[in-house]
Amino acid sequence: MGPVNVGLDIGATKTLGLVIDDAGEILAEVREATEPGTDGVVRTAARVVEALRAATGEPLTGTVGVGIPGLVDPPNGTVKHAVNLGLDGDWFPLGQALGERLGVRVVVENDVNAASLGAVKVCGEDDLVYLSIGTGLAAGLVLEGRLRRGDHGAAGEVGHIPVDPMGALCECGQRGCLETIASGSALASAWPSSGHVPPAQALFAAAQGGDEKAVAVRDEFAAGVASAIRVLALAVDPRTVVLGGGVAQLGEQLRVAVAGALQAQAASSPFLASLDLAGRLRVVPADYPVAAVGAALLGR
Ligand SMILES: [Zn+2]
After folding, report:
1. What is the spatial distance between Cα 46 and Cα 41, in angstroms, rounded to a whole number?
2. So which residues are the signal peptide here (predicted)?
3. Are 104 and 299 in contact (CB under 8 A)?
4. What is the pLDDT of residues 227-250, one digit of tens each?
5. 133 Cα: distance to centroid of ligand 1 (angstroms)
6. Is 4 exposed, middle or buried (0-12, 13-18, 19+ CB in 10 A)?
7. Cβ-proximal residues to 213 (8 Å cutoff; 6+ apart), any chain
8. How far, in Å, from the CA of 196 to the mean position of ligand 1?
């Protein structure tokens, strides 16, 4: 086996690990339910790497890249505010703890930032904004080939741009943030689904079937995503905008809805229309593990 890289995407429900070769080809993939808390997260991550070692028959002694939600300090490999993982205390030295356990170097990055590097790989474009529409709404910025984290790690936090003074109270303490309109959780409260169909799929299917209320909810959601893209595009003007996160499992129907909303917003503005934001939109291929791939690339 030639040079390989190991990447982990640690999420609240599952931890996904993979091994990629230099061409970005996925050689092995493992997923495990994430145990919460500092010990649980480290134990789960270590178990995933051991499973990858078993699957490939390789010692995998190179750097392990980790993407994780929350506030991450990459130079120190520390994380905090990953509340859904039970990491809500002080800075936790994840890189050091996992590195000692596995006997390898571990680098840690915010999961959306890691995913934006994965998006670079899958799109073959190195100037892009990756918009993650998951439980929350956040963007990763790779500008002219470089990841922009921001001085306080807050670059791309468009989910907390307030757009509606009369809107819902956001968990960040502001009112009417984009995240309260254009996120998986906003969509789930606007269109609660029962059974096994995720709310996004249920909503888009109902809208497709002609349900007027579903059409209105879908269009409001798409307009919110379009507003986030407009803010990002006018701030940094990326060549490509990539939609990812759980809601992006909708695939092409999400791209079409958001492109339509972008065109509607540009209808009265020759300036906005000339920027062709709709034409820059792409969606991560279904089931492509974009954050884990990006995490693996951190080790290079
Ligand atoms: Zn907010």
Report:
1. 9
2. none
3. no
4. 999 999 999 999 999 999 999 999
5. 14
6. buried
7. none
8. 29
Q: If you write DSSP's letter for every residue of 6-51 in order, what string do you get?
A: EEEEE-SSEEEEEEEETT--EEEEEEEEPPPHHHHHHHHHHHHHHH
Report how far ligand 1's centroid is from the alpha carbon of 158 (Å).
9
CA of 166 to the centre of ligand 1 (A): 13
pLDDT of the residue at 299: 83
> What DSSP element (H or E) covers 146?
strand 146-148
For 22-61, the pLDDT digits (tens) are: 888 999 999 999 999 999 999 999 999 999 999 999 999 9
Å from CA of 157 to ligand 1 middle: 9
For residue 87, CA distances in Å to 16, 18, 38, 52, 161 come to 18, 23, 6, 25, 25
Listing DSSP states for 220-238 in one string gives: HHHHHHHHHHHHHHHHH--
Q: How far is the CA of 162 from the centre of ligand 1 (A)?
A: 7
Rounded distance, CA 18 to CA 292, Å?
7
Q: What's CA 218's distance to the chain center, in Å?
A: 21
Domains of the chain in start order, with CATH, are: 5-104 (3.30.420.40), 124-283 (3.30.420.40)
Q: What is the number of other CB atoms lying within 10 angstroms of the CB of residue 162?
A: 15
CA 183 to ligand 1 centroid distance, Å: 11
Regarding beta strands 146-148 and 106-110, do their DSSP bridges make them parallel or antiparallel, or are they unpaired?
Answer: unpaired
Angle, to 10 degrees, between the axis of helix 252-266 and the axis of helix 212-236? 70
Scanning the structure block, which residue is given the tokens 């499973």? 51
- Asked if 258 contacts 222 with a C-beta cutoff of 8 angstroms, the reply is yes
- Cα(17)–Cα(9) distance, rounded to whole angstroms? 6
Q: Measure 192 CA to ligand 1 centroid, in angstroms.
A: 21
